[in-house]
Amino acid sequence: MKPLAILATLAALAGCSASTTKRLRLPPLETVVHVDLARYVGTWYEIASFPQSFQKGCVATTATYTIRADGDIDVLNRCRKDALDGPEKSALGRARVVDGATNAKLEVSFFRPFWGDYWIVDLGADYDYAVVGHPGRDYLWILSRTPTMPEATYEGILARLKTQGYDTSRLKRTLH
Q: What is the dihedral of CA 157, 42, 137, 164, to 10 degrees?
């Protein structure tokens, strides 16, 4: 095996080990009890998120969900690059429900065959906000049906996320 391949393999294994160790220290992530997908679909505005390389420079970020004929969900993510009047970037993906009893655990893919966890961990009673997380607490998005969210709602979400083991200091607000 070439030295570079060995190094890449060791790095991948170390990443898996670190992620597994982190998960062992955290309580299992709880999702909401049930999601009515017909009410969930539509456009959501990102209020805050954990910074991710694939969203670097994004502002005015939205996600639009549409139920497909086969039951999966089309996902269209959009943002403006670097400024509110910057060029639009978009990514089209697909989501599928993995827990039909609750509809709160989904997987999403923007590059098949790779799928990532998309768990709905908080949801407004009127579907006015949603919080999407990951069982390892590596990803987090706070979403709203409008570009802004009342501060009291945001603070309540943060308090609930802390009880779920999220480091909310990592959240970055999204400019709209």
A: 30
